[in-house]
Write a structure and sequence with these properties.
Radius of gyration: 22 Å
CATH class of one domain: Mainly Beta
Strand content: 35-45%
Helix content: 10-25%
Length: about 425
């Protein structure tokens, strides 16, 4: 196997010597990190008897990761021992590698050549990420750019260009095809922070629904300037498909589901009043591999009353908005704005006075709830935005806690990282 150009990550929680012996506290455990695992960014986690190999380090894009180690294992299970990074990061529908790899679980961004594309980025978690897209560049305040650094809890909505073309001209440049996007921190790529931007030929209809939209585009904005609307949402704990792994004896990638905490929009007051943890999980049962973080998309000038029902069994929940006009009691950070576990209800009122992309997240038990997925985004669109942009997407870079979110139990995974 050719080594990938991915750095060897040194474990922060355990220090192995040259024999793979890890010491922690008063216990000693011998765990071997193979050369192949090192090449794919795997690392030793834990201390003492709980030391284990982790190949998915708790990084995701919009809840999901597609780590290269597991994709390599899937090919190896089918007798394919040679494969480049490009082979692993692309689907292989022709099977020329000996076994087709599926398209990644991470969001696919789609547009046709010449369409104006906007990608909004939100980062949740304690780490720094660098968004990079292949074959394209956009104009930033400092000039041309194709990489954007995202600090913890930072947003950026300036990734805007013509698909398959230039930043300012729809004339074809890179053209149609599958172009990679990813975090440019190399171990983060290895652990799953990458996806595909599919540029289709001009005029192609593949993948479009009856309304002419691709599956993961942001929804049509709600409201209008001067109008007040009601929005209903529940916080719920539910299984989501968040990664893939090769199970013992399998020759293909199998989906891994773990409990997440997410915001789920509800249709109206009736659905809100009737919502239970069980009923909301039922709504999601067919969307576990496609569910995206909630995006509340509003037209500039809209006032919104957001009704939150907390269906988490044992954790409080709130909605804390950035960038909009709100009173302190609707900020999601005060006692009266916290929804109690097991069905507590609160109502917030905000005015979407400033166009842009803004964080929207829990502030009742921030570390635990955000680590498990209780975050969203608030998108405020100006009239000019709606006219200018053809395709509009949201990507959320997320650092989750693997003990809470991945459900890891020492020894349960046989070193597979889950």
């Amino acid at each position: 196997m050719r080594p990938l150009l991915l750095g060897l990550l040194v474990a922060a929680c355990a220090t192995p010597d040259e024999h793979g012996t890890t010491t922690g506290g008063h216990e000693t455990a011998t765990v071997t990190l193979t050369a192949e695992q090192a090449a794919f960014g795997c690392m030793l986690m834990g201390t003492g008897a709980s030391t284990h190999v982790m190949c998915n380090h708790g990084h995701s894009i919009s809840f999901r990761s597609e780590n290269l180690w597991e994709r390599h294992r899937a090919l190896a299970a089918n007798g394919v021992v040679e494969g480049s990074e490009a082979d692993l990061m692309m689907a292989d529908p022709t099977g020329h590698m000996g076994a087709a790899l599926p398209e990644p679980l991470t969001p696919m961004v789609q547009a046709r050549v010449g369409e104006r594309l906007r990608i909004r980025l939100v980062s949740y978690g304690p780490q720094i990420h660098d968004f990079h897209v292949h074959g394209h560049w956009w104009k930033s305040a400092d000039g041309p750019a194709d990489v954007r650094e995202l600090l913890p809890a930072q947003v950026y909505d300036g990734v805007e260009f013509f698909a398959g073309a230039g930043a300012e001209s729809p004339e074809p440049r890179s053209g149609p095809g599958d172009w990679m996007y990813h975090c440019h921190v190399e171990p983060h790529i290895a652990s799953g922070m990458w996806g595909v931007m599919r540029v289709r030929p001009a005029g192609a209809t593949d993948g479009l629904d009856a309304a002419g939209r691709y599956a993961l585009e942001l929804p049509t904005p709600l409201g209008a300037s001067g109008q007040t609307i009601d929005v209903f949402v529940a916080a719920v704990e539910t299984p989501l498909a968040i990664a893939r792994e090769v199970l013992p004896g399998a020759k293909e990638l199998s989906t891994v589901e773990r409990l997440a905490r997410i915001y789920v929009p509800l249709a109206d007051q009736t659905a809100f009043d009737a919502a239970t943890a069980k009923s909301v999980r039922g709504l999601l049962s067919t969307q576990r591999e496609t569910w995206q973080p909630w995006a509340l998309v509003l037209r500039q000038g809209t006032t919104v009353k957001v009704h939150l029902k907390n269906l988490l069994p044992d954790a409080p929940a709130t909605l804390h908005p950035h960038g909009v006009k709100t009173a302190i009691g609707s900020d999601g950070t005060t006692p009266e704005s916290v929804a109690k576990p097991g069905g507590g209800v609160v109502t917030y009122e905000w005015t979407a006075d400033t166009a842009g992309t803004w964080p929207l997240h829990d502030h009742a038990r921030t570390l635990e709830n955000l680590g498990r997925g209780l975050f969203a985004a608030l998108v405020v669109k100006s009239p000019e935005d709606e006219k200018r942009i053809t395709r509009d997407y949201l990507l959320v870079f997320h650092d989750y806690d693997h003990d809470w979110f991945m459900g890891f139990e020492p020894g349960a995974s046989g070193g597979g990282g889950h």
